[in-house]
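Fold it.
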Amino acid sequence: MRHRLAPQPLEWACIVVAGVILAAQLLVPPIVGLADNHDYDRVMGWFGMVPAGIPEDQRYVDFVDRDYDLRLGQFAGGGYLSSELGFTALAVALSPLISSPADLDLRVVGAVHAAAL
């Protein structure tokens, strides 16, 4: 009995199609996401991040807030520890490669998660 280790062409095609679909959902506007239900603050606060240009009264009833301002020095971690902090730290570090150092696009966090898969 032979065991094959390398994926066959159909398997590669499925992987590529799944990757394209994932990238389109994460990176092409309008992006798919969930509204902030106060959980974002628990992770984003560690990095001094706040939604960019979102009125406070619309922050928790609107769709996903894609853009965040990095306000370094405004630490508001609150002691909440999560494995998500590692993903967010990597996204904050990579974000200046595609936008200004004072901004974070939530799609960068999504791309970091996709790369971890």
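The chain has one domain: 33-116.
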